[in-house]
Design brief:
The chain has 181 residues and is mostly helical. It is 67% helix and 3% strand. A two-stranded parallel ribbon has the order 1-2.
């Protein structure tokens, strides 16, 4: 028995899940939308030479992304299906969005609650979400969150906005929290 790598024609003719078409359409719409907005987001200076123009490389990448998305959609429309689209497949795609949502929640909560308290709460929550259940693992995650805050704000002096709740603290403690935590 010999193991053989499939050739390009076999890969292109492979069977696909039903949700593949929806994903292909979504990627094409996203990339075409970004390409349509490029004029508003970047500029052509006209005096720098083509390769040094601010809009050149983003434009090249978005054109490439749109062409590849169109080819992917065409291939997806011509591929055989071995399973109808169902909710389980949709959940696989939706799960990819979960962690960006966690991150955006973190970003929006930090200016209100503060970097230290938010990190100490979010790290164990994410650890729990990833399957860690023991008290030791959750306390370790909280400690890691605190160490990261001290490292970034205290030693690296990264500017992170102080939490709005810090305003309720006494002056000396408030200043310390804003500067270091």
């Amino acid at each position: 028995m010999t193991d053989r790598t499939p050739d390009v024609d076999e890969i292109a003719a492979s069977e696909r899940l039903g949700g593949d078409r929806y994903f292909a359409v979504a990627i094409l719409v996203l990339s075409a939308g970004l390409l349509a907005l490029i004029g508003e987001q970047t500029q052509w200076k006209g005096n720098k030479g083509l390769l040094n123009e601010p809009a050149f490389w983003p434009g090249v990448s978005l054109i490439g992304m749109t062409v590849c998305a169109a080819l992917y959609l065409a291939q997806s429309l011509s591929a055989k299906r071995f399973a109808a689209w169902d909710r389980r497949e949709l959940l696989v795609w939706v799960r990819c969005i979960e962690y960006p949502i966690w991150f955006m929640a973190y970003v929006f909560i930090v200016p209100v609650v503060g970097y230290l308290p938010t990190s100490i709460v979010f790290c164990p929550l994410l650890a729990r979400r990833m399957g860690y259940r023991s008290a030791r693992a959750l306390w370790s995650a909280a400690l890691i969150g605190a160490v990261i805050v001290v490292l970034f704000k205290g030693f690296l002096q990264v500017r992170v906005p102080g939490g709005a709740i810090y305003e309720a603290l006494p002056d000396g403690l408030r200043n310390f929290m804003i500067l270091y935590l």
